[in-house]
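Exercise 7b. Backbone tokens:
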């Protein structure tokens, strides 16, 4: 449709109507279209094919007319005076755009064929080169559009959104360590309620589950210490030869004595008493001859 370009038709504001009779019956069409807005002009269109009916382009003054009419398109308007006359109304944008696109494509392909003939190249090779150039151009335009969108959607710096009354905001008071713990276990209190804030409970810091684990740990450690003390019980030693079955040899007894002396949890008096209790006749006699009531940590030097 060359008439669209030559007449500078506003495509978004126009409709194309087929079935024109050039008689007074066409007044019904004019009255129907004027219901949606003021008409700027009516432009005849020469039929492009022999079987095509006569067509006209109706251009509205304002685009709001097309906004009201567009939901009803395409529309068939039957004449009230002549039953054999029917007008077909379509949006020009839906008709002209595909035609223009098809014409441009055909023209472009014809030019490529001419280039292939002039250069002696295969038309398929020329077409592939052009498609490669088109792909690069599309990728470049796409990347530029993405960069533009990223700049528009980039978050503003804090200075751009700083509140106007920032000078009126007073700093928050510093919190004591106890208040920091309270902040994790209860919602923040308003200033009027901080004066009556209750004291922090042990159950708030250490829930019952944690307290249970701590108690069990202490009990286990105490049991372990008790087992160590029990295992260090000295067996009787007399030094007699042959050694009775109820007694231990000197090396075993001495090793147990060294472990007892290294126990810092026991007093010297307790260690001396345990040593003396483990010694039987003949061995105890030797100790008494060397030193009476000798402290525990000196007995190993004597024996």
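Sequence design result:
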């Amino acid at each position: 449709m060359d008439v669209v370009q030559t007449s500078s038709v506003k495509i978004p504001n126009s409709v194309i109507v087929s079935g024109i009779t050039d008689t007074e019956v066409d007044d019904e069409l004019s009255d129907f279209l004027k219901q949606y807005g003021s008409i700027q002009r009516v432009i005849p269109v020469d039929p492009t094919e022999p079987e095509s009916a006569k067509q006209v382009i109706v251009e509205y003054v304002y685009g709001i007319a097309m906004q009201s009419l567009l939901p009803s398109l395409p529309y068939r308007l039957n004449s009230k005076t002549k039953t054999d006359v029917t007008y077909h109304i379509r949006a020009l944008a839906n008709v002209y755009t595909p035609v223009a696109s098809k014409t441009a494509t055909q023209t472009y392909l014809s030019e490529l064929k001419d280039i292939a003939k002039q250069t002696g190249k295969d038309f398929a090779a020329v077409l592939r080169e052009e498609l490669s150039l088109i792909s690069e151009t599309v990728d470049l335009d796409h990347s530029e559009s993405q960069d533009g969108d990223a700049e528009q959607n980039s978050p503003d710096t804090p200075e751009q959104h700083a509140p106007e009354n920032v000078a009126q905001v007073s700093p928050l008071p510093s919190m004591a360590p106890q208040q920091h713990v309270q902040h994790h276990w209860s919602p923040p209190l308003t200033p009027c309620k901080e004066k009556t804030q209750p004291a922090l409970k042990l159950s708030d810091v250490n829930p019952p589950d944690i307290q249970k684990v701590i108690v069990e740990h202490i009990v286990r450690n105490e049991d372990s210490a008790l087992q160590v003390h029990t295992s260090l019980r000295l067996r009787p030693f007399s030094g007699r030869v042959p050694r009775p079955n109820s007694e231990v040899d000197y090396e075993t007894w001495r090793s147990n004595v060294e472990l007892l002396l290294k126990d810092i949890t026991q007093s010297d008096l307790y260690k001396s008493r345990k040593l003396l209790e483990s010694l039987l006749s003949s061995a105890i006699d030797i100790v008494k001859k060397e030193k009476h009531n000798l402290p525990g940590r000196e007995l190993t030097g004597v024996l």
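Instructor comment: Residues 80 and 222 are 110 Å apart (CA to CA). The longest helix spans residues 123-153.
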